[in-house]
Each structure stands twice: as structure tokens, then as C-alpha cells.
Amino acid sequence: MTNDELFETVQQAQYGERQAMQKIIEAYYPLIRKQTRTLDPSTSKDFEQTIIEKIVRAVHNYDITSLPDFITFCQANTQPE
């Protein structure tokens, strides 16, 4: 997904289009799965769900009228607390 496509998809998701949110999650799902492979199977699903929840929150909280771009915003807002 290009940055322009991601921007448009984030806009659509913010307007409540569930398919757009699903498209964003699917775009990042391979990376999420890659990260969970190193975890214990009993915790990997919980970790996966936590990351997906953070992505959903980031999409809804992202101000599309400001900088940084969405990818940078997600990286800054998904760091361990």
C-alpha cells in the first residue's frame, strides 16, 4: 500500500468504513505475525490483539490535517509503555 493509498484508507476508516479499517489491519498483519512468531504460543494471540487494538486507536486518533505521516505517527504511538 502506498502512502497515498494509506492516507485515503485512513480517511475512510475515520469516517466509519469498516472495510477500510480491515484493509489497514491486513496491510500490517504480516508484520504483526512476524513479531509474534518469537513469542510463546499462549501469549502470541494476546500480543497480536493488543497490536491490532493500538492500530485501530492510532487510525481513529490520527489528525489527517497535520504532520507526521501516518506511519511515523503509528511508530511513535505504539512504543511500549
TrEMBL record:
Residues 7-63 form the Helix-turn-helix conjugative transposon-like domain. One of its GO terms (biological process) is DNA-templated transcription initiation. InterPro entries: HTH_dom_conjug_TS-like, RNA_pol_sigma_r2. It holds the Pfam family HTH_16. GO terms for molecular function: DNA-binding transcription factor activity. This is Helix-turn-helix domain-containing protein.
